[in-house]
Design goal:
The complex is a heterodimer.
Chain A (H helix, E strand, L loop, with lengths): L4 H20 L10 E7 L5 E3 L2 E3 L7 E3 L2 E4 L11 H8 E5 L3 E5 L4 E10 L6 E6 L2 E8 L6 E11 L3 E8 L2 E10 L20 H18 L18 H6 L16 H8 L11 H12 L47 H12 L10 H13 L5 H9 L5 H11 L2 H13 L18 H12 L4 H14 L4 H6 L10 H5 L3 H24 L18 H11 L9 E6 L8 E5 L10 E4 L7 E5 L22 H13 L6 H14 L20 H13 L4 H9 L2 H4 L7 H6 L12 E2 L2 H12 L14 E5 L6 E6 L23 H5 L18 H9 L1 H18 L3 H13 L5 H24 L2 H4 E2 L1
Antiparallel strand pairs in A: 1-13, 2-3, 4-7, 5-6, 6-13, 7-12, 8-11, 8-13, 9-10, 9-12, 14-15, 16-17, 18-21, 19-20
Helix pairs in contact in A: 3-6, 8-10, 8-11, 10-21, 11-12, 13-18, 16-17, 19-20, 19-21, 24-27, 26-27, 27-28, 27-29, 28-29
Chain B lengths: L9 H10 L3 H15 L18 E6 L14 H6 L28 E4 L4 E4 L3 H5 L4 E8 L5 H10 L9 H9 L9 E4 L27 E2 L19 H20 L5 H23 L7 H7 L7 H15 L4 E5 L20 H21 L6 E6 L3 E6 L10 E4 L3 E7 L6 E3 L1 E2 L6 E3 L2 E2 H11 L9 E3 L2 E3 L15
Parallel strand pairs in B: 1-7, 1-8, 4-12, 4-15, 5-6, 5-7
Antiparallel strand pairs in B: 2-3, 4-11, 8-11, 9-10, 13-14, 16-17
Helix pairs in contact in B: 1-2, 1-8, 7-8, 9-11, 10-11
Classes of the chains: A alpha+beta, B alpha/beta.
C-alpha cells in the first residue's frame, strides 16, 4: 500500500535531517565517497564511459610511446555498450608498456585498467608506480576484456606510472578515482533511509550495496523479472533466496549463494563481472550481518551497460560551465568558439577560415528565413564596410516576419502537426491552421521558450482570457485521431483506442519537450531509461483530460480587452474533460487496471520534484498547469538541453546530440557535453530568449566557417565533422527548394497566415466517408504560390515533389529530416509541372528585368539564383544553351544545379 | 554522424564522375572510397565472395503475421487439443495483447502435396500445386511480437529504425546488372504504401549511400514513377542538352568545393533518371506478354489482379537484372488477423490469401518455365506467426489469433535450395520452435550465402563499427541447401 504523498514527503524530510546530522557527527565512521578523477581512452577520441567524460589519446595528461592497435571487428566477451566497446578495441600495446598519467595532484587514488585480447592469450604482470599490483595476468581468449582494479595508489610525484612486463599487453583505457572512500558513480542520489536506528549500516547498504545490486542483479532478479525465482530488491525476498537456495545468509558468507555465483563469475550472466572491490564489499556486507537500508532498491539507481539509471548524463542538473581557454584565442568570436576550439586543439586540429560574404549571406538567409537573399541585399551586405555588417544582417533577418515561417516549420515537424485526422476517415480539420499561425507568430515575437511551452500545454488554464494562449493548445490536438474507432467501434474498441491515443500524447510530450521516450513504459518499466511503468501512467493522468475529439471550440467569443482585439470564430484547440482516475494497466491492457496513480512527473529528472501534490481525482486544469510548470522549471535538466540542441541541429546540420528527440540510453551521446550545458544554462538565465540563442550561434566563428576547407588530418580523425572543423554542406529541405524557386522566379506570394492552400486534389465526401487525397492540382497561381508552410498539411496528402525532397508525412514526429538523393528526385525536379512553371516565370522575370541582352540575362539569373556573378566558362555554357533551347529551359536547368540545392 | 552524406575520397570521385561514362564504374569507385574510409580490417567487404547459386531476390512480404498452424505447419495434435487451454507443458502461454484463449485447430484442412508430400493447407490452393518447388522453414523465431520493430528486423536485420534494408545491402554488395534500372525496386500493394509497418523506412539505405535505397513504384494506377516525363513535353534532345548543361555547371561548381559526395551523387542520379525514363515503362508494359502468361498470374481475376500485376512486374524486373524486388501486401499489417482468420477482406487470412495465392503460384511457375528459378530466390515471409490459441478471454475460443514470435513459418523458393522440403519444427501444437530454430539473422545469412556473399564479410564502416545486415549473429542454414 503506497503511503500518501504528504506522508512520504515528511518522512523524507525527517530522513534528510537525520542524514545531515549523521554526516556532521564526528563519530561517524563513514569515509567520504571517492570522486571520479580522470579517464583516458589510450588510443582514440574522448569518450563518455559510465557517464564520465574521458580524455582521448591526445590528452595533455598522458605520456606514452607505446604502439597503437585497433581492430573493431573482434566480438567482445562479454558484450558491452558501443562506446565502451570502441574504446576497448583500440588500444596501446607493448611487451613492456610504460606510460605516465601526469598532472596528478598529491593524494590517494584508485586505478582501474581496461585490458583486452584481440587474438591469443598473453600473460603479463602489471605495476603501478613500480609496485606490482597484478602478477601473471592471463588475458584470455580473443575478445576477452577486463576492467582490472581498483588498485590504490598514493600519488606523490605528480604522476601515476603504469608498466607491464611479460607478454604483449593490450591496454585500452585507464580510469582513476580520487580519495579512498567507496567508489560511487556521480549523480547517484542516496535513496531514503528508513531505519534511523540503524543508520550507519543502512547508509552503507544504500551507498555501497544497493548500487551494486541495482547495477548487476536487479534486471533479472528484481520485481518484474525473477529469474530462478530470486528477487534481490527487498530484504525479505533476498533473505528468502531463490530456487537453488538462500542468496544471502547474514553473517555467513559461505552459505550465501550470491557470493558463490558472483565470485565464480557465473553471475551476472552474459555481462561484465563484478570488479574486485564490488565483490569484497558484498562479502563484507554479508559478514557484517547483511543489514538492509531502503525498503526496496530502486532498479534505476545506476546506469548499467544495458540501461540508463538516474545518473545518466541527461538527467543530471545543467551545469554552469566556464568556457575553456584556447590557444588560438584570436579565432574565437564568442564562447561557443572556445568550446569548439578547445576540442579541436586537443586533437591537434584547427578550425576553417570564415566563408566569403556571398556564401555567408546565402547560408544565413536560408537558415534564418528559408529564402534566398535578393540581389540588392547581397550587394548592400558586400558593400557594408562597418565592422558589424554581419551582425546587422543577422538582426535584420531575425526581425523578418519570414523568420517565424522558417522556424515554425521546424517545430511543426517535431510535434507532427497535421491538418487531417489520419486513420481511415482522415477528415480535414479546417481550423487547425490557427495553431500553425500561432507557432509562426510565437517565433516572430520572440516568445520566451518557457512561455512557448507553457501556453501549448496549458494556455487555456494559465491565461483564460487570452485568445492566443488558447490557440496555443492546438498542440494537444494536432495529432491523429481514429474517428471510425470512436464513432463506429464497440465500447471496447473505443476504450482501447483511447489508451492508444494517450500513448501517442505521452510519446509526443516526452519526445518533444524532454527528449524521452516515456511511451515505451506503457506495458512495462522502460527497458533503457529510468522510467517506471507507474510513471508512464502518472504522465498519462496529467494528459488524461486532452481530447482529440472532432469537437472544436466553435464560436469562441472574446470581448476586446485593453491589449487584445475581440474574436469570434472557430478554433481547433483543446476541449478538456475531467478524466477518470488513472491506474497502472498490467501489460498496458486497459482491462487489467492495477494501482491507481496520481498525476505526477518523472523521478529521474535530477533534483526536480516529481510530486505535484495532486490527488488521482485532481481537477483537469490543475494537472496541465502543474505539467507546464514542471516542464519549464529551471531545475528541469532536459527542457533547455533538448531545445538548445534542436536549434543547434538546424544551424549546424548536426546535433550536439545526434538524436534530437532521444536523450536517453538509446540516443546518441553529446559530442560537446560542456557546450551543451553552457548553452542550456545561458538560455535559461537569459530568460529563454530564442532569438538571442540564434544570435549567439550564428555569430560564432564556428558557424561562419567555410564548408570547403580540406584538412587531411581532420578528415582522417573526424571524417564526420563531429568536432566542427568546417561548416557542413546542407541540402535545402523540400520547403526551402519550393519557396526558393518561387522567390527566384518572382512568383512568391508573401501573404502571411490564414487558411491553408491546397496543392493536392481533395475528395471531400460526406461526414461518414473518408477524405481522400489524390493527385497534385498542378495549379500555379497567386493563391497557391505561397510559402510551403501554408499548404494543407494533411496526413497521406503529400505533394510528390516535396516527398521526393524528404518532406515527411505528419503522422510521425520528425526530429530530423532525412536528406536523400535519388533518381526520383531528379525526375521530379526536372519534370514536375510546378518546377516547369517556376522556370517559365523565372524566364519572364529575367526578360523583364534584364532586357533582351543575353549576357545581362545570364548575369541576372546568376545573381537571383546563386547570389553571385557567373564566371566566364559558365556564361559561355549558358549562352550556347540558351541559343539552342531558350531561356525557359535554361531556367529549369538552374533549378536543378547543385549550387541551387545546396548551401555552402 | 552526418548520416546524409558519407565522406569518401572526393578527388578520386570528382574525376570519376566526369572521366568515366559508366555509372557502374562510378558506383564501384564510390564503394572503393567508402571502403577506404573504413579504418580497420575487412580488406574486401563487398561480394560476391564465392560462386553464387542465385543472382536475384524477389521478396514477398506478408506483413502482419501469417499463421503457421493455418498454412505450412501441420499440427494434428492441435486438433486433439482444440477447445482446451494450452497445457503448461508447452510453456507459459504468452500473447501480445494479453488474451490467451483456448487452443484452436487449423482453420483450413491440411493435405500432403505433390510428389514431395509437403504439408500445405487449403489456405493456399494454388501454391499447394507448386509445393514441390517450396522450401518451408517451420522453425522460425523472431525477437519481437510488435509489428513495426519486427518488420524492420525482417527487412533490415535490426529492430530499430535507420538500418539499411536487405535490398540495399545487395545493391551495395553486388551492384546492379542493369544500369538503367534501380538495383532495388519496391512494389507496394495497390491498396497503398505500407505505412502501418513503417513505410519507406523498410527500404531505406540507412547509412549506405542513398543510391542503394529501394525505389518504390506507384502501383495504384497512373504513371509507375511520377514525373518520369516532362510535364511540358520537352523533347528528348532538349532534355539531353539540359542535362549536359547541368552537368557542366555542376562540374564547375565542384572544382571549388570539398564534401563533394552528395554533389557527385546528384550528378549520378540524373544519369540514372534519364535512363530510367525508357527502362521503367518498358519493364512495366505487359503488351508483349501472351494471354496465357497473364492468366497464369491471375491478371484475369478481379480478386487478385493487383498482386498479379506486381508479380509479373517482379519477373520482368528480375529478367532485366534488378537485384532485388520486394512486394508488399496491404498496409504492411494486412495479415494481422486478430479477430477472424477466415473472415472476409482486410486482416483476415482468407481474404489476404485470395489476393496472393494465385499470383504467387503463377510467379513460381513462370520463373520455372523460363529457367529463372535457377537464378532467383523467392522469399515469402512475415515478421512473426500467430498463436495456436485463439485471441479470446481465458477459457474462451475465438476465431482470431494474436502475434507470435516463438515459432512460425517462412518459405523460400528457388536456386540452390532443397525443393519440396520442410526444415525444423515447432512443438506438437505449433507454439515454440523446438527443432533447429532459425532466426531472421540465419535467414538473411542463408539468402546472402545463396547469392555468393559471406554475411560476415559484407560490411560497411559506420560510427565506429563495421556494420552488417546480420549484426553480430547469423548462421547459414546448411540443411536447406541443395
Amino acid at each position: 500500500m503506497p503511503c500518501s504523498c504528504l506522508e512520504r514527503r515528511s518522512v523524507l524530510a525527517l530522513v534528510q535531517v537525520l542524514l545531515a546530522l549523521s554526516t556532521c557527527c564526528p563519530a561517524s565512521a563513514e569515509a567520504p565517497h571517492a570522486e571520479f578523477f580522470r579517464g583516458i581512452n589510450l588510443n582514440g577520441p574522448p569518450v563518455v564511459i559510465d557517464g564520465h567524460h574521458w580524455d582521448g589519446d591526445d590528452s595533455k595528461h598522458l605520456e606514452t610511446r607505446d604502439q597503437v592497435f585497433e581492430n573493431q571487428s573482434v566480438s567482445l566477451i562479454p558484450t558491452t555498450d558501443p562506446e565502451r566497446a570502441r574504446m576497448i578495441r583500440s588500444s596501446r600495446w607493448n611487451s613492456q608498456v610504460d606510460l605516465n598519467v601526469i598532472n596528478v595532484p598529491t593524494g590517494s587514488y584508485s586505478v582501474f585498467l581496461y585490458v583486452w585480447e584481440d587474438n591469443a592469450s598473453e600473460t603479463f604482470s602489471i605495476s603501478l608506480d613500480d609496485r606490482e599490483v597484478l602478477h601473471d595476468f592471463a588475458s584470455g581468449p580473443a575478445g576477452t576484456w577486463k576492467r582490472l582494479g581498483p588498485w590504490q595508489v598514493a600519488a606523490k610525484s605528480g604522476a601515476i606510472r603504469l608498466t607491464t612486463r611479460g607478454g604483449a599487453a593490450n591496454i585500452s583505457g585507464i580510469e582513476i578515482w580520487r580519495g579512498d572512500g567507496p567508489i560511487l558513480e556521480p549523480g547517484i542520489r542516496l535513496p531514503n533511509v528508513t531505519r534511523p536506528q540503524d543508520l550507519a549500516a543502512a547508509k552503507i547498504f544504500d551507498a555501497e550495496i544497493a548500487p551494486i545490486l541495482a547495477k548487476h542483479c536487479l534486471e533479472c532478479h528484481g520485481r518484474s523479472v525473477q529469474s530462478g525465482k530470486l528477487a534481490l530488491g527487498t530484504e525479505t525476498t533476498a533473505l528468502a533466496g531463490g530456487a537453488t537456495g538462500p542468496a544471502v545468509v547474514p553473517g555467513k558468507p559461505d552459505e550465501s549463494l550470491l557470493l558463490d555465483y558472483v565470485d565464480s563469475g557465473e553471475m551476472p550472466r552474459d555481462r561484465p563481472p563484478l570488479n574486485d572491490v564490488e565483490k569484497q564489499r558484498l562479502r563484507r556486507w554479508i559478514v557484517d550481518g547483511a543489514k538492509w537500508g531502503t525498503p526496496e532498491i530502486d532498479p534505476f539507481l545506476v546506469t548499467t551497460d544495458r540501461r540508463a539509471g538516474y545518473n545518466w548524463w541527461s538527467f543530471r542538473p545543467v551545469r554552469e560551465i566556464t568556457p575553456p581557454v584556447v590557444r588560438d584565442a584570436k579565432h574565437a568570436r564568442n564562447d561557443i568558439d572556445r568550446f569548439i576550439l578547445a576540442r579541436l586543439e586537443e586533437r591537434g586540429l584547427n578550425a576553417a577560415p570564415e566563408a566569403d560574404r556571398r556564401a555567408l549571406i546565402r547560408r544565413l538567409s536560408f537558415d534564418l528565413i528559408g529564402l534566398p537573399p535578393e540581389p540588392g541585399e547581397v550587394e548592400r551586405f558586400l558593400a557594408d564596410a562597418t565592422p558589424d555588417a554581419y551582425e546587422k544582417l543577422v538582426d535584420r533577418l531575425l526581425a523578418s516576419p519570414h523568420y517565424g515561417e522558417r522556424w515554425g516549420r521546424h517545430w511543426l515537424d517535431v510535434v507532427r502537426f497535421g491538418e487531417s485526422e489520419g486513420f481511415e476517415r482522415n477528415h480535414i480539420r479546417d481550423n487547425a491552421w490557427r495553431y500553425r499561425d500561432w507557432v509562426i507568430q510565437a517565433f516572430n515575437r520572440d516568445l520566451p521558450y518557457d512561455e512557448f511551452v507553457k501556453q501549448q500545454i496549458a494556455g487555456d488554464v494559465l491565461y483564460p482570457k487570452d485568445l492566443e494562449a488558447l490557440i496555443a493548445t492546438g498542440y494537444h490536438v494536432c495529432g491523429t485521431w481514429d474517428e471510425v474507432a470512436h464513432y463506429e467501434g464497440s465500447s471496447e474498441m473505443q476504450r482501447a483506442t483511447r489508451f492508444d491515443e494517450i500513448e501517442d500524447l505521452v510519446a509526443t510530450l516526452g519526445q518533444t519537450f524532454l527528449g524521452l521516450t516515456i511511451n515505451c513504459a506503457r506495458c512495462h518499466d522502460h527497458k533503457f531509461d529510468p522510467i517506471s511503468q507507474k510513471e508512464y501512467y502518472q504522465i498519462a493522468a496529467m494528459l488524461g483530460g486532452v481530447n482529440q475529439e472532432k469537437e472544436e471550440r466553435s464560436k469562441i467569443t472574446l470581448a476586446p480587452t485593453a491589449g487584445q482585439p475581440g474574436f469570434k470564430g472557430v478554433a481547433h484547440v483543446i476541449v478538456p474533460r475531467q478524466p477518470p482516475p488513472y491506474a497502472v494497466l498490467q501489460r498496458g491492457d486497459y482491462r487489467k487496471p492495477g494501482e491507481v496513480v496520481a498525476p505526477a512527473g518523472l523521478r529521474a529528472l535530477s533534483d526536480l520534484p516529481a510530486d505535484f501534490g495532486l490527488q488521482p481525482d485532481a481537477p483537469e486544469a490543475r494537472r496541465r498547469e502543474a505539467l507546464a510548470r514542471w516542464l519549464t522549471d529551471p531545475r528541469n535538466p532536459l527542457t533547455a538541453r533538448v531545445f538548445v540542441n534542436r536549434l543547434w541541429y538546424q544551424h549546424f546540420g548536426q546535433g550536439l546530440v545526434e538524436t534530437p528527440s532521444d536523450f536517453g540510453f538509446n540516443g546518441s551521446r553529446p559530442s560537446h557535453p560542456e557546450l551543451l550545458d553552457f548553452l542550456a544554462s545561458r538560455f535559461m538565465k537569459s530568460g529563454w530568449k530564442i532569438k538571442e540563442l540564434h544570435r549567439l550561434m550564428v555569430t560564432s566563428a564556428t558557424y561562419r566557417q567555410e564548408s570547403r576547407a580540406a584538412y587531411e588530418r581532420a578528415e582522417k580523425l573526424d571524417g564526420d565533422n563531429r568536432l566542427l572543423w568546417r561548416a557542413n554542406r546542407k541540402r535545402l529541405e523540400g520547403e526551402a527548394v519550393r519557396d526558393a524557386a518561387l522567390a527566384v522566379s518572382g512568383a512568391l506570394n508573401r501573404q502571411f497566415g490564414g487558411p491553408s492552400f491546397e496543392d493536392i486534389r481533395v475528395n471531400r465526401k460526406g461526414a461518414n466517408s473518408n477524405h481522400e487525397f489524390t493527385d497534385p492540382t498542378g495549379e500555379f497561381s497567386e493563391a497557391v504560390n505561397r510559402r510551403t508552410i501554408y499548404r494543407l498539411w494533411a496526413r497521406s496528402g503529400g505533394n510528390p515533389l516535396l516527398e521526393s525532397l524528404d518532406c515527411p508525412d505528419p503522422s510521425v514526429m520528425t526530429p530530423r529530416r532525412t536528406r536523400t538523393i535519388t533518381p526520383i528526385q531528379a525526375l521530379s525536379l526536372s519534370h514536375n509541372v510546378f518546377v516547369e512553371n517556376c522556370a517559365k516565370r523565372f524566364a519572364s522575370r529575367i526578360r523583364r528585368e534584364a532586357g533582351d541582352d543575353s549576357k545581362r540575362q545570364i548575369e541576372h539569373a546568376w545573381q537571383l539564383a546563386f547570389a553571385r556573378m557567373p564566371i566566364e566558362r559558365e556564361r559561355q555554357a549558358a549562352q550556347s544553351f540558351i541559343a539552342k533551347q531558350g531561356l525557359e529551359q535554361f531556367c529549369l536547368a538552374l533549378f536543378n544545379t547543385n549550387e541551387f540545392l545546396f548551401l555552402n | 554522424m552526418n548520416r546524409e552524406f558519407q565522406s569518401t575520397r572526393r578527388d578520386f570521385l570528382k574525376d570519376a564522375v566526369f572521366g568515366l561514362p559508366s555509372i557502374a564504374a562510378v558506383d564501384l569507385l564510390l564503394r572503393g572510397g567508402h571502403l577506404d574510409a573504413a579504418t580497420t580490417s575487412s580488406p574486401r567487404n563487398r561480394g560476391p565472395h564465392f560462386a553464387p547459386k542465385a543472382q536475384h531476390v524477389i521478396h514477398i512480404y506478408l506483413g502482419g503475421g501469417l499463421s503457421q498452424v493455418d498454412s505450412f505447419d501441420f499440427k494434428p495434435e492441435l486438433e486433439k487439443y482444440h477447445g482446451k487451454d494450452m497445457p503448461q507443458s508447452f510453456g507459459q502461454a504468452d500473447a501480445f495483447f494479453g488474451k490467451v484463449g483456448r487452443l484452436h485447430q487449423s482453420h483450413y484442412p491440411f493435405k500432403r502435396r505433390g510428389k514431395s508430400g509437403l504439408w500445405v493447407s487449403d489456405l493456399f490452393p494454388n501454391i499447394s500445386e507448386v509445393a514441390d518447388e517450396l522450401t518451408v522453414i517451420n522453425s522460425m523465431v523472431a525477437e519481437t511480437a510488435n509489428h513495426i520493430p519486427g518488420t524492420f528486423q525482417a527487412n533490415t536485420g535490426f529492430r530499430q529504425m535507420g538500418f539499411p534494408a536487405m535490398g540495399s545491402w545487395l545493391s551495395y554488395g553486388l551492384g546492379t546488372e542493369n544500369e538503367n534500372l534501380p538495383g532495388f525496386v519496391v512494389l507496394p500493394d495497390a491498396r497503398g504504401i505500407p505505412n502501418a509497418a513503417g513505410g519507406a523506412f523498410n527500404w531505406a539505405s540507412g547509412f549506405l549511400p542513398a543510391e542503394h535505397q529501394g525505389v518504390a513504384f506507384n502501383t495504384r494506377g497512373g504513371p509507375v514513377v511520377r514525373d518520369l516525363r516532362p510535364a511540358g513535353g520537352a523533347s528528348s534532345e532538349t532534355q539531353r542538352e539540359r542535362l549536359d548543361l547541368i552537368k557542366q555547371l555542376d562540374a564547375i561548381h565542384m572544382e571549388s568545393q570539398t564534401q563533394t559526395d552528395p554533389l557527385s551523387a546528384r550528378v549520378q542520379s540524373y544519369e540514372l533518371a534519364a535512363r530510367m525514363q525508357s527502362a521503367i515503362p518498358d519493364a512495366t508494359d505487359f503488351s508483349s506478354e501472351p494471354a496465357h502468361v497473364l492468366k497464369l498470374y491471375g491478371l484475369d481475376r478481379d480478386d487478385c489482379r493487383d498482386t498479379a500485376r506486381n508479380c509479373l512486374i517482379a519477373r520482368r524486373l528480375v529478367e532485366r537484372g534488378v537485384r532485388m524486388v520486394q512486394l508488399w501486401t496491404g498496409d504492411g499489417v494486412s495479415w494481422d488477423a486478430h479477430d477472424d482468420i477466415t473472415g472476409k477482406g482486410y486482416k483476415t487470412h482468407t481474404g489476404e490469401a485470395r489476393r496472393v495465392d494465385h499470383p504467387i503460384a503463377g510467379l513460381i511457375r513462370d520463373l520455372k518455365n523460363r529457367g529463372l528459378l535457377d537464378s532467383t530466390i523467392i522469399m515469402i515471409t512475415s515478421e512473426f506467426g500467430r498463436t495456436p490459441f485463439a485471441q479470446a478471454d481465458k477459457g474462451k475460443l475465438g476465431r482470431g489469433r494474436d502475434h507470435h514470435p516463438q515459432g512460425f513459418s517462412n518459405v523460400l523458393v528457388g536456386a540452390g535450395l532443397k525443393k519440396g522440403f520442410a526444415h525444423g519444427a515447432t512443438d506438437a501444437i505449433g507454439y515454440a520452435s523446438v527443432v533447429d530454430p532459425v532466426t531472421v539473422y540465419d535467414l538473411h545469412a542463408t539468402v546472402l550465402h545463396l547469392l555468393g556473399i559471406d554475411h560476415k564479410r559484407l560490411t560497411f564502416y559506420h560510427d565506429g563499427i563495421q556494420r552488417r545486415l546480420t549484426n553480430v549473429h547469423g548462421n547459414v542454414v546448411k540443411a536447406i541447401l541443395a
